[in-house]
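FAQ

Q: What does a record look like?
A: Structure on top, sequence underneath. For example:
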C-alpha cells in the first residue's frame, strides 16, 4: 500500500517536554532543564516535516504560556496549526519530564485537566480533508470526552473524503478510567483504520490477552485493514498485510534514552509510504528513524532530516536478522 502524497492531517496533542540537563542527570537531582515540543501527535508531525512532508495538527492547547510555547514550537517546525485552538479555564497542557538515560529511566507525565481532551466535533468538522492525503491519530485522543467523539467524527469525515486512516495505538493507562473501556474503544478505532501501528503490549491489551496480540493484529487485517505493524522492541517487527506477513529486524544503536522511538517510527514509516517505498522498506525506514531518535537528546528536536536519515542508512551495517 502506498499513499497518494505526503500531506498529513494529525488529530492529537501538543505539549512540553522537559529533560534534565546535562544528559544522564536524574530528575530529582536536576537544576537545569532542556525544554522542547512534546506530545505524540505533535512529534509525529515534526518527524514528517523533517522528512520533507507537510503536517497539520488538530487539537486544543491551554490558553497560557505553556500553550503558547507549544504553538511557537509548532511554528518552528513548520506544522500547520490553523486548527489548534486555545482552551481557557482550568485546562492545562500535557507536560512530561523525561530523563536522557537508559538505566533506571524515569518519566513523569502530567495530564490532569488536559486541554487536548476538550477538542470538539466543531474542531474536526472545520478541517478541509480534501486538502490532505491521509489522517493520522494516536490513541490518547480517545481516552476522554469530548475528544473521543470528536476523533471518531474526524474519522468519518476523512473516510468520506477518501483519506486512508492511520492509527498509532499509543496506549497510556493513566489517562483511561478502565482497561476494559480502553480496549473496547481502541478495537472500534482499529476496525475503522487502514494502517494500525503498535507494540506487542498494546496489541495484546486490545486483544484482552497479552499472548494474543499478534492474533489481534492479524484479525484487524482480516477485517479490512491494509497494514498492521506489530512491534516487538529489540526483536524487530511483524508486518501483516492481506497478501501475507513478514518480519524485520532493528538498527543497533547506542541509546541514550528509551523514549521517542514510537513517534519517530511512525513518521519515518508513513513518509516512506508517501515517497513510494514498498512496505518492507518503509518499515525499515521507520526502524532507522527510531534508532536515531533514541540516541539523541529530546524527541522533536531529535527527529532526523531526510539527509541525516540517508547518511545513517548508508553508514549503518544494516538491520538485525529478524
Amino acid at each position: 500500500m502506498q499513499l497518494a502524497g505526503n500531506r498529513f492531517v494529525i488529530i492529537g496533542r501538543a505539549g512540553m517536554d522537559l529533560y534534565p540537563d546535562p544528559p544522564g542527570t536524574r530528575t530529582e537531582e536536576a537544576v537545569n532543564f532542556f525544554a522542547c515540543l512534546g506530545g505524540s501527535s505533535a512529534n509525529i508531525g515534526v518527524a514528517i516535516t523533517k522528512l520533507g512532508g507537510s503536517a497539520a495538527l488538530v487539537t486544543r492547547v491551554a490558553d497560557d504560556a505553556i500553550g503558547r510555547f507549544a504553538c511557537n514550537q509548532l511554528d518552528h517546525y513548520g506544522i500547520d496549526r490553523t486548527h489548534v485552538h486555545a482552551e481557557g479555564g482550568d485546562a492545562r497542557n500535557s507536560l512530561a519530564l523525561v530523563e536522557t538515560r537508559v538505566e533506571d529511566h524515569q518519566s513523569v507525565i502530567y495530564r490532569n485537566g488536559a486541554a487536548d481532551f476538550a477538542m470538539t466535533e466543531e474542531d474536526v468538522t472545520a478541517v478541509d480533508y480534501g486538502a490532505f492525503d491521509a489522517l493520522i491519530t494516536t490513541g490518547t485522543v480517545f481516552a476522554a470526552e469530548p475528544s473521543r467523539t470528536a476523533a471518531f467524527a474526524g474519522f468519518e469525515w476523512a473516510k468520506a473524503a477518501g483519506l486512508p486512516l492511520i492509527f498509532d495505538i499509543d496506549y497510556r493507562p493513566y489517562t483511561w478510567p478502565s482497561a476494559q473501556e480502553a480496549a473496547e474503544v481502541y478495537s472500534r478505532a482499529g476496525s475503522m483504520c487502514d494502517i494500525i501501528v503498535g507494540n506487542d503490549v498494546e496489541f495484546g491489551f486490545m486483544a484482552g490477552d497479552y499472548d494474543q496480540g499478534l492474533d489481534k493484529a492479524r484479525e484487524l487485517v482480516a477485517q479490512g485493514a491494509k497494514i498492521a505493524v506489530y512491534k516487538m522492541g529489540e526483536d524487530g517487527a511483524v508486518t501483516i498485510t492481506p497478501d501475507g506477513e513478514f518480519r524485520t529486524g532493528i538498527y543497533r544503536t547506542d541509546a541514550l534514552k528509551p523514549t521517542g522511538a514510537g513517534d519517530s517510527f511512525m513518521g519515518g514509516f508513513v513518509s516512506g509510504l508517501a515517497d513510494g517505498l514498498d512496505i518492507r522498506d518503509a518499515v525499515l525506514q521507520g526502524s532507522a528513524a527510531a534508532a536515531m531518535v533514541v540516541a539523541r537528546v529530546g524527541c522533536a528536536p531529535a527527529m532526523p532530516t531526510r539527509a541525516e536519515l540517508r547518511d545513517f542508512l548508508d553508514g549503518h551495517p544494516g538491520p538485525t536478522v529478524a
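Q: Is there anything notable about this one?
A: The first strand starts at residue 7 and ends at 11.
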